[in-house]
Amino acid sequence: MALALPPIDSATDVLLVIDIQNDFCPGGALAVAGGNEIVTMANALMARFGRVVLTQDWHPAGHRSFASAHPGHAAFDRIQMPYGGQTLWPDHCVQGTAGAAFHPELDTRAASLIVRKGMDAAIDSYSAFFENDRRTATGLGGCLRELGVRRVFLCGLATDYCVKYSALDARRLGFEVVVLLEACRAIDLNGSLADALTDMRQAGVSLA
């Protein structure tokens, strides 16, 4: 079934497809339940937009967000990093590995830009716009402004982490934002999905 969307303006709307990568799909190192189910929807959405941006987690080996970089800690522990609280993850989306590749059924030909994030070994990066220090920009915000984009639609993985942070940052930068929830899936770690939906609503994000 096709997702119901408001009228799309190819000049001022953009679709961000967040992290539909092998490691976030079933069988991957940090699998999101049902992550593979959104690939067909993402492909259909990309065909309806004039501008499409893909994001890709692209961590160096030994990234400080990995539990393996912190002896005595396990995946999903919370620790303090210089930039704030950090959930420790299983090693995932390591640069050049099969796990970091886009899902093989994702039609990447529609993308006009691919934003790779999490490349600084010392700082995790959920958002398409800023690393987790909340200051270091990826450059995507400026690029979209230069293109005249006013409204950002999002789909992808995971609703409560990279989709949420990208949506919040897009609002912070002054864009209208719509999250297409049917074309997202969540990790839902300790209630993180409910918290994410609340945070996005409070920030003025439209949840479609």
Automatic annotation (TrEMBL):
Broad enzyme group: hydrolase
UniProt pathway annotation: Cofactor biosynthesis; nicotinate biosynthesis; nicotinate from nicotinamide: step 1/1
Alphabetized Pfam families for the sequence: Isochorismatase (PF00857)
Keywords annotated in UniProt: Hydrolase, Metal-binding, Pyridine nucleotide biosynthesis
EC number: 3.5.1.19
A GO BP annotation: pyridine nucleotide biosynthetic process
SUPFAM superfamilies membership: Isochorismatase-like hydrolases
Domain Isochorismatase-like: 14-205
GO molecular function: metal ion binding; nicotinamidase activity
Family from the record: Belongs to the isochorismatase family.
Protein name as it appears in the record: Nicotinamidase
